[in-house]
């Protein structure tokens, strides 16, 4: 599998972020009404989203993680960063509606919410798909897989403890743990 670096995610984000408002707008209004909303307000929204989102993602560390081993904490980072950018964009759209910087059709107030949902799906999906591809067996070549037999482990997969070895004293079940007993020796 080719190495995917964080700079590749930055380039992908810079391509996705300007296109997501178009998709959100198509989800919000009917296809024939989309040209009515392509005003200076909408282009300003795209410009601000393209400037703000990568900066917030950088602050939240989305460009400094090893995504092949992404965890729940990484998913929470994505969630908080997308939530913050959605709130910022919602505030800016509300501010524009109240102050009327530009004339013409306004950007719908629901656009930042739809844009935020799409951003979460695509930003999170792009990063966690790398984890899915990095899972053992998910995309493994069957000719490269080596089988291994592990002997001596416990049922839960951990290494055996010294108390689990034969001939060692162990605690009696139901006692306070202070009394120990020696297992019976196997005599034939």
Question: If you had to describe this structure to a student in words, what would you say it looks like?
Answer:
This protein is mainly alpha-helical and 188 residues long. It has one domain (1-188). It contains 5 helices and 2 strands, in the order αααααββ. It has helices at residues 6-28, 34-37, 40-59, 72-99, 111-134, and strands at 170-171, 180-181. The chain has a two-stranded antiparallel sheet. Strand 1 and strand 2 (180-181) form a beta hairpin. Helix 1 (6-28) packs antiparallel against helix 3, helix 1 runs antiparallel to helix 5 (111-134) and helix 3 runs antiparallel to helix 4. The N and C termini lie far apart (57 Å). The mean pLDDT is 78.
Properties at a glance:
188 residues; 2 strands; elongated
Q: In what range is the share of β-strand residues?
A: under 5%
What overall form do the CA principal axes indicate?
A: elongated
Total E-strand runs: 2
How is the biggest beta sheet arranged? 2 strands, antiparallel
Provide the helix percentage.
40-55%
The total domain count is 1
Structural class by secondary-structure content: mainly alpha
Poorly predicted segments: none
Count of separate DSSP helical elements: 5
Neighbour order of strands in the largest sheet:
1-2
Radius of gyration: 28 Å
* Mean of all residue-level pLDDT scores: 78
**Helix-strand pattern, N to C?**
HHHHHEE
Give the N-terminus to C-terminus distance in angstroms. 57 Å
């Amino acid at each position: 599998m080719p190495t995917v670096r964080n700079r590749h995610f930055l380039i992908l984000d810079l391509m996705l972020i300007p296109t997501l408002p178009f998709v959100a707008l198509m989800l919000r209004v009917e296809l024939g009404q989309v040209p009515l909303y392509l005003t200076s307000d909408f282009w300003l929204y795209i410009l601000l989203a393209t400037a703000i989102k990568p900066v917030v993602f950088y602050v939240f560390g989305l460009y400094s993680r090893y995504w092949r081993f992404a965890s729940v904490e990484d998913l929470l980072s994505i969630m908080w960063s997308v939530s913050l950018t959605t709130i910022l964009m919602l505030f800016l759209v509300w501010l524009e509606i109240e102050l009327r910087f530009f004339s013409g059709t306004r950007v719908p107030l629901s656009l930042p919410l739809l844009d935020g949902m799409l951003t979460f799906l695509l930003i999170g999906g792009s990063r966690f798909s790398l984890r899915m591809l990095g899972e053992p067996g998910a995309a493994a070549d069957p000719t490269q897989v080596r089988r291994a037999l592990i002997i001596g482990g416990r049922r839960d997969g951990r290494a055996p403890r010294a108390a689990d070895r034969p001939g060692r004293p162990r605690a009696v079940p139901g006692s306070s743990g202070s009394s120990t007993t020696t297992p019976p020796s196997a005599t034939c």
